[in-house]
Amino acid sequence: MVRTLAFLLATSFAFADTQIAQNFSGDFVVKVNYSYLLSKPEGYEAKAKKKWPLVIFLHGSGERGSDLEKVKMHGPPKLIAAGQKFPAVIASLQCPSGDLWNPHGIKAVTDHLIKTEHIDTHRVYLTGLSMGGFGTWDTAFEYPETFAAIAPVCGGAGVRWVQAERLKTMPAWIFHGDKDGAVPVENSHKIHDALQKIGAPVKLTIYPGIGHDSWTATYDNPEFWKWLFEQKRP
Q1: Which runs of consecutive H residues, i.e. helices, occur in 117-174?
Q2: Does residue 135 fall inside a structural domain?
Q3: Are 158 and 183 in contact (CB under 8 A)?
Q4: Spatial distance between the Cα atoms of 92 and 72, rounded to a whole number of angstroms
Q5: Is pLDDT of 6 > 50?
Q6: What is the arithmetic mean of pLDDT over 222-234?
Q7: Which of 6, 40, 81, 223 could be bridged to 17 by S-S, CB 3.0 to 4.6 A?
Q8: What is the Cα–Cα distance from 152 to 173, expressed in whole angstroms?
């Protein structure tokens, strides 16, 4: 009986993970080769004419490589693997070992998904943690017309805060822990202040007493997902 129960639990968990490994290769400003996990919402196949939101997720430096299972360690792919359902197509990209996120590559994968899946182009979102937070900022600055909203977690925009005007109409919710020893919280304060100064629709959440892991609280928060899916490009 115990063995049977254990088998059923293991089987149920396996079935809960709806993410399928995919790969995109091509040329788009630079040569692009990104593997990613793709999850589709319930009812996706049955509602062929329906257009769905798209969420692009960028992991941190520790999940780089060629093993997509590593991408499930944090963020949306972790939640999906545990059985959580989202009313959106979610693509969790993997950055090759030794590389940093390339905004042109992220844009190429995003365009590919818009072309091949049932995507509402007014509701394409970008989020990432740590190295993925930096990648989120870089990609948004390069392609601000592509995304309806961004959510960088414990990242930073570097010197690009001087280009804040490019994101004047971009809804952004920034997250950081005030005890982050890996990526200084000042990174998020600086870009937030620059965007706020020009009247951009930006929000900042600083978690008191939290170190580098500000992503667990962020992605576990239903209010975050509610906010994200409410955002639409004009």
Answers
A1: 131-142
A2: yes
A3: no
A4: 9
A5: no
A6: 97
A7: 81
A8: 7
Closest CA to 76 of 199, 232, 216: 216
Cβ atoms 191, 137 nearer than 8 A: yes
Q: Token pair 């600083």 is at which residue?
A: 206
- Closest of 122, 123, 120, 190 to residue 155, by C-alpha: 190
> What is the dihedral sign for C-alpha 149, 214, 226, 174?
negative
Cα end-to-end distance, the chain, whole Å: 57
CATH classification of the domain holding 171: 3.40.50.1820
Condensed to tens digits (0 to 9), the pLDDT of residues 192-208 reads 999 999 999 999 999 99
In a domain, 7, yes or no: no
Instruction: Judge whether 39 lies within some domain.
Output: yes
Element (H, E) at 216: helix 215-219
Under 8 Å between Cβ of 37 and 91: yes
pLDDT tens sequence across 60-110: 999 999 999 999 999 999 999 999 999 999 999 999 999 999 999 999 999
> Strand 89-94 and strand 52-58: pairing?
parallel
Q: What is the pTM of this model?
A: 0.92
pLDDT in tens, 115-126: 999 999 999 999
Residue 174 falls within a domain, yes or no?
yes
